[in-house]
Amino acid sequence: MDRLMQDPHSAMVRSRLAPTPSGYLHLGNAWNFGLTWLLTRRAGGRLRLRIDDLDAPRVRPEYLEDIFRTLEWLGLDWDEGPGGPEDHRRHFSQQNRHARYRELLQALGPRLFACRCSRREIQAASRDGQYPGTCRELGLPLGGPGTALRVRTEAVTITWDDGWLGPQAVALEASMRDPVLWRKDDIPAYQIATLADDLDHGINLVVRGADLLDSTAIQRWLAREIGAGRFLEAQFFHHPLLKGPDGAKLSKSAGSYSLQAWRAEGRTAAEVWQQLARALGWAGPVGSLQDLLAAPIALPPAGDHAHWPGGA
Ligand SMILES: [Zn+2]
Question: Which domain, by its residues, includes 300?
Fold first, then answer.
Protein backbone atom coordinates (compact mmCIF):
# COMPACT_ATOMS: atom_id res chain seq x y z
CA MET A 1 0.00 0.00 0.00
CA ASP A 2 1.29 3.45 -0.83
CA ARG A 3 2.41 5.61 2.05
CA LEU A 4 1.04 8.62 0.22
CA MET A 5 -2.71 8.43 0.70
CA GLN A 6 -5.09 10.52 -1.32
CA ASP A 7 -7.37 12.36 1.04
CA PRO A 8 -10.06 14.37 -0.75
CA HIS A 9 -10.27 16.73 2.22
CA SER A 10 -6.58 17.59 2.24
CA ALA A 11 -4.88 20.11 0.02
CA MET A 12 -3.89 18.93 -3.43
CA VAL A 13 -0.54 17.16 -3.70
CA ARG A 14 2.07 19.44 -5.25
CA SER A 15 5.54 18.26 -6.10
CA ARG A 16 8.44 19.31 -8.27
CA LEU A 17 11.18 18.06 -10.56
CA ALA A 18 14.35 19.96 -9.61
CA PRO A 19 17.20 19.36 -12.07
CA THR A 20 20.41 21.40 -11.95
CA PRO A 21 21.88 22.61 -15.27
CA SER A 22 25.50 22.07 -14.31
CA GLY A 23 25.96 18.84 -16.26
CA TYR A 24 24.10 16.45 -18.57
CA LEU A 25 21.33 14.47 -16.92
CA HIS A 26 22.01 10.82 -16.16
CA LEU A 27 19.97 7.72 -15.44
CA GLY A 28 19.82 8.49 -11.71
CA ASN A 29 18.11 11.81 -12.47
CA ALA A 30 15.59 10.04 -14.70
CA TRP A 31 14.72 7.57 -11.93
CA ASN A 32 14.18 10.41 -9.47
CA PHE A 33 11.97 12.25 -11.98
CA GLY A 34 10.05 9.05 -12.76
CA LEU A 35 9.38 8.35 -9.08
CA THR A 36 8.34 11.95 -8.45
CA TRP A 37 6.03 11.89 -11.47
CA LEU A 38 4.49 8.56 -10.44
CA LEU A 39 3.82 9.57 -6.84
CA THR A 40 2.35 12.91 -7.94
CA ARG A 41 0.18 11.53 -10.74
CA ARG A 42 -1.13 8.68 -8.61
CA ALA A 43 -2.27 11.21 -6.03
CA GLY A 44 -3.91 13.34 -8.74
CA GLY A 45 -1.47 16.10 -7.86
CA ARG A 46 0.26 18.89 -9.73
CA LEU A 47 3.87 18.77 -10.81
CA ARG A 48 6.17 21.73 -11.25
CA LEU A 49 9.44 21.94 -13.16
CA ARG A 50 11.87 23.94 -11.07
CA ILE A 51 15.34 24.27 -12.48
CA ASP A 52 17.93 24.88 -9.79
CA ASP A 53 20.23 27.31 -11.61
CA LEU A 54 21.34 29.20 -8.52
CA ASP A 55 25.02 28.42 -8.98
CA ALA A 56 25.40 30.76 -11.97
CA PRO A 57 29.13 30.14 -12.61
CA ARG A 58 28.44 26.42 -13.15
CA VAL A 59 25.34 26.78 -15.33
CA ARG A 60 25.85 26.29 -19.07
CA PRO A 61 23.29 26.85 -21.85
CA GLU A 62 23.79 23.36 -23.27
CA TYR A 63 22.93 21.82 -19.90
CA LEU A 64 19.78 23.92 -19.63
CA GLU A 65 18.80 22.81 -23.12
CA ASP A 66 19.55 19.20 -22.20
CA ILE A 67 16.98 19.31 -19.39
CA PHE A 68 14.10 20.12 -21.73
CA ARG A 69 15.28 17.70 -24.40
CA THR A 70 15.68 14.88 -21.89
CA LEU A 71 12.30 15.44 -20.23
CA GLU A 72 10.63 15.36 -23.64
CA TRP A 73 12.51 12.21 -24.62
CA LEU A 74 11.50 10.57 -21.34
CA GLY A 75 7.85 11.49 -21.90
CA LEU A 76 7.64 13.43 -18.62
CA ASP A 77 5.08 16.20 -18.46
CA TRP A 78 4.59 18.94 -15.88
CA ASP A 79 1.85 21.41 -15.01
CA GLU A 80 3.75 24.50 -13.84
CA GLY A 81 7.08 26.08 -14.63
CA PRO A 82 9.03 26.95 -17.78
CA GLY A 83 8.20 25.59 -21.22
CA GLY A 84 11.71 26.03 -22.58
CA PRO A 85 15.16 27.50 -21.89
CA GLU A 86 14.24 31.08 -22.84
CA ASP A 87 11.03 31.01 -20.80
CA HIS A 88 13.09 29.73 -17.89
CA ARG A 89 15.70 32.49 -18.15
CA ARG A 90 13.09 35.22 -18.42
CA HIS A 91 10.46 34.13 -15.91
CA PHE A 92 11.67 31.35 -13.63
CA SER A 93 15.41 31.59 -13.01
CA GLN A 94 16.47 31.42 -9.38
CA GLN A 95 19.03 34.08 -10.28
CA ASN A 96 16.13 36.56 -10.44
CA ARG A 97 14.91 35.64 -6.96
CA HIS A 98 17.82 36.75 -4.78
CA ALA A 99 15.66 39.42 -3.08
CA ARG A 100 13.18 36.77 -1.98
CA TYR A 101 15.93 34.47 -0.68
CA ARG A 102 17.45 37.38 1.23
CA GLU A 103 14.08 38.14 2.79
CA LEU A 104 13.78 34.58 4.08
CA LEU A 105 17.33 34.75 5.38
CA GLN A 106 16.58 37.90 7.34
CA ALA A 107 13.73 36.13 9.12
CA LEU A 108 16.45 34.18 10.94
CA GLY A 109 17.55 37.39 12.67
CA PRO A 110 20.13 36.96 15.42
CA ARG A 111 20.79 33.35 14.43
CA LEU A 112 22.84 34.64 11.46
CA PHE A 113 26.53 35.37 11.74
CA ALA A 114 29.26 36.30 9.31
CA CYS A 115 32.10 33.84 8.72
CA ARG A 116 35.44 34.63 7.13
CA CYS A 117 36.97 31.14 7.38
CA SER A 118 38.47 29.51 4.33
CA ARG A 119 37.70 25.89 3.56
CA ARG A 120 41.24 24.98 4.58
CA GLU A 121 40.95 26.74 7.94
CA ILE A 122 37.72 24.89 8.68
CA GLN A 123 39.30 21.56 7.79
CA ALA A 124 42.26 22.26 10.03
CA ALA A 125 40.15 23.30 13.04
CA SER A 126 37.32 20.78 12.75
CA ARG A 127 37.32 17.59 14.77
CA ASP A 128 34.21 16.04 13.23
CA GLY A 129 34.14 17.40 9.69
CA GLN A 130 31.62 20.05 10.76
CA TYR A 131 32.09 23.80 11.07
CA PRO A 132 34.10 24.32 14.30
CA GLY A 133 32.27 27.51 15.30
CA THR A 134 35.29 29.78 14.80
CA CYS A 135 33.35 32.94 13.92
CA ARG A 136 30.20 32.25 15.96
CA GLU A 137 30.94 34.81 18.67
CA LEU A 138 33.18 37.23 16.74
CA GLY A 139 30.35 39.59 15.85
CA LEU A 140 31.71 40.27 12.35
CA PRO A 141 29.50 42.67 10.36
CA LEU A 142 26.89 40.83 8.31
CA GLY A 143 27.46 41.10 4.58
CA GLY A 144 31.02 42.37 4.89
CA PRO A 145 33.40 41.67 1.99
CA GLY A 146 34.92 38.21 1.89
CA THR A 147 32.45 36.78 4.38
CA ALA A 148 29.75 34.14 4.12
CA LEU A 149 26.58 34.08 6.20
CA ARG A 150 26.00 31.08 8.42
CA VAL A 151 23.10 30.17 10.68
CA ARG A 152 23.77 29.18 14.28
CA THR A 153 22.25 25.70 14.66
CA GLU A 154 21.33 24.05 17.95
CA ALA A 155 21.68 20.55 19.40
CA VAL A 156 18.27 19.22 18.41
CA THR A 157 17.06 16.04 16.75
CA ILE A 158 14.90 16.54 13.68
CA THR A 159 12.28 13.84 13.16
CA TRP A 160 9.79 12.99 10.43
CA ASP A 161 8.01 9.96 9.08
CA ASP A 162 9.62 9.38 5.71
CA GLY A 163 7.40 7.99 2.98
CA TRP A 164 10.12 5.64 1.78
CA LEU A 165 12.44 5.08 4.74
CA GLY A 166 9.98 5.26 7.64
CA PRO A 167 10.63 7.19 10.88
CA GLN A 168 13.76 9.37 10.72
CA ALA A 169 15.74 11.09 13.49
CA VAL A 170 18.67 13.29 12.46
CA ALA A 171 20.91 14.94 15.08
CA LEU A 172 21.20 18.38 13.51
CA GLU A 173 24.64 19.43 14.74
CA ALA A 174 26.21 16.10 13.87
CA SER A 175 24.81 16.22 10.34
CA MET A 176 25.14 19.91 9.46
CA ARG A 177 26.39 22.44 12.00
CA ASP A 178 26.05 26.17 11.19
CA PRO A 179 25.60 25.73 7.42
CA VAL A 180 26.39 28.55 5.00
CA LEU A 181 23.15 30.15 3.79
CA TRP A 182 24.74 32.94 1.73
CA ARG A 183 28.03 32.32 0.02
CA LYS A 184 31.13 34.50 -0.02
CA ASP A 185 30.63 35.06 -3.75
CA ASP A 186 27.22 36.62 -2.99
CA ILE A 187 25.20 33.61 -4.16
CA PRO A 188 22.39 32.25 -1.96
CA ALA A 189 23.06 28.72 -0.76
CA TYR A 190 21.02 25.73 -1.89
CA GLN A 191 19.31 25.25 1.49
CA ILE A 192 17.72 28.70 1.68
CA ALA A 193 16.75 28.89 -2.01
CA THR A 194 15.19 25.44 -2.05
CA LEU A 195 13.19 26.16 1.09
CA ALA A 196 11.97 29.52 -0.26
CA ASP A 197 10.94 27.96 -3.57
CA ASP A 198 9.15 25.03 -1.95
CA LEU A 199 7.27 27.41 0.33
CA ASP A 200 6.33 29.83 -2.45
CA HIS A 201 5.18 27.04 -4.76
CA GLY A 202 3.15 25.28 -2.07
CA ILE A 203 5.17 22.08 -2.43
CA ASN A 204 3.93 19.38 -0.04
CA LEU A 205 5.60 16.31 -1.57
CA VAL A 206 9.39 16.15 -1.90
CA VAL A 207 10.93 13.11 -3.59
CA ARG A 208 14.72 13.07 -3.42
CA GLY A 209 17.68 10.74 -3.04
CA ALA A 210 18.69 9.40 0.37
CA ASP A 211 21.93 11.41 0.06
CA LEU A 212 19.84 14.49 0.90
CA LEU A 213 18.59 13.37 4.34
CA ASP A 214 20.85 15.94 6.02
CA SER A 215 19.50 18.68 3.76
CA THR A 216 15.94 17.70 4.61
CA ALA A 217 16.78 17.91 8.32
CA ILE A 218 18.28 21.40 8.03
CA GLN A 219 15.44 22.64 5.81
CA ARG A 220 12.83 21.38 8.28
CA TRP A 221 14.70 23.08 11.12
CA LEU A 222 14.99 26.34 9.14
CA ALA A 223 11.28 26.23 8.32
CA ARG A 224 10.48 25.93 12.00
CA GLU A 225 12.83 28.79 12.89
CA ILE A 226 11.21 31.17 10.42
CA GLY A 227 7.70 30.10 11.38
CA ALA A 228 6.90 28.32 8.10
CA GLY A 229 5.06 25.48 9.82
CA ARG A 230 3.29 24.23 6.72
CA PHE A 231 6.57 22.99 5.30
CA LEU A 232 6.74 20.57 8.24
CA GLU A 233 3.55 18.93 7.01
CA ALA A 234 5.10 18.14 3.63
CA GLN A 235 5.65 14.46 2.83
CA PHE A 236 9.23 13.43 2.13
CA PHE A 237 10.27 10.36 0.15
CA HIS A 238 14.01 9.60 0.22
CA HIS A 239 14.68 6.85 -2.30
CA PRO A 240 17.91 4.83 -2.60
CA LEU A 241 20.39 6.16 -5.12
CA LEU A 242 21.15 4.42 -8.34
CA LYS A 243 24.83 3.55 -8.17
CA GLY A 244 27.40 2.59 -10.73
CA PRO A 245 28.96 -0.89 -10.95
CA ASP A 246 31.69 0.26 -8.56
CA GLY A 247 29.06 1.15 -5.95
CA ALA A 248 29.80 4.87 -6.26
CA LYS A 249 27.17 7.56 -6.63
CA LEU A 250 26.55 8.56 -10.24
CA SER A 251 27.91 11.95 -11.15
CA LYS A 252 26.96 14.43 -13.83
CA SER A 253 29.78 13.09 -15.95
CA ALA A 254 28.71 9.46 -15.46
CA GLY A 255 29.70 8.32 -18.95
CA SER A 256 27.67 5.18 -19.63
CA TYR A 257 24.74 6.52 -17.59
CA SER A 258 24.48 9.82 -19.49
CA LEU A 259 21.04 10.07 -21.10
CA GLN A 260 22.46 12.33 -23.77
CA ALA A 261 24.71 9.44 -24.81
CA TRP A 262 21.76 7.04 -24.73
CA ARG A 263 19.77 9.26 -27.06
CA ALA A 264 22.73 9.56 -29.41
CA GLU A 265 22.97 5.76 -29.54
CA GLY A 266 19.32 5.54 -30.54
CA ARG A 267 18.23 3.90 -27.29
CA THR A 268 14.69 4.61 -26.14
CA ALA A 269 13.11 5.96 -22.97
CA ALA A 270 11.24 2.65 -22.65
CA GLU A 271 14.56 1.12 -21.59
CA VAL A 272 14.88 3.69 -18.78
CA TRP A 273 11.41 2.92 -17.48
CA GLN A 274 11.89 -0.85 -17.83
CA GLN A 275 14.97 -0.62 -15.64
CA LEU A 276 13.13 1.48 -13.06
CA ALA A 277 10.20 -0.97 -13.11
CA ARG A 278 12.56 -3.89 -12.45
CA ALA A 279 14.17 -1.97 -9.58
CA LEU A 280 10.69 -1.52 -8.12
CA GLY A 281 10.07 -5.26 -8.38
CA TRP A 282 7.70 -5.14 -11.38
CA ALA A 283 8.46 -7.66 -14.14
CA GLY A 284 5.55 -6.85 -16.45
CA PRO A 285 5.79 -5.13 -19.84
CA VAL A 286 6.78 -1.47 -19.80
CA GLY A 287 6.89 0.68 -22.93
CA SER A 288 6.39 4.09 -21.36
CA LEU A 289 5.96 5.98 -18.14
CA GLN A 290 2.18 5.62 -18.57
CA ASP A 291 2.62 1.85 -18.33
CA LEU A 292 4.40 2.32 -15.00
CA LEU A 293 1.50 4.45 -13.80
CA ALA A 294 -0.95 1.68 -14.72
CA ALA A 295 1.15 -1.11 -13.18
CA PRO A 296 0.38 -2.35 -9.63
CA ILE A 297 3.67 -1.18 -8.19
CA ALA A 298 3.98 -0.44 -4.46
CA LEU A 299 5.89 2.75 -3.65
CA PRO A 300 8.10 2.24 -1.78
CA PRO A 301 8.50 -1.33 -3.05
CA ALA A 302 7.45 -4.02 -0.63
CA GLY A 303 10.08 -6.13 1.12
CA ASP A 304 13.78 -5.58 0.73
CA HIS A 305 15.01 -3.52 -2.17
CA ALA A 306 16.95 -6.38 -3.64
CA HIS A 307 16.35 -5.24 -7.20
CA TRP A 308 17.75 -1.76 -6.64
CA PRO A 309 21.22 -1.66 -8.21
CA GLY A 310 23.72 -0.75 -5.54
CA GLY A 311 20.87 0.60 -3.44
CA ALA A 312 20.59 0.48 0.32
ZN1 LIG B 1 34.20 31.18 10.33
Answer: 16-96+238-312
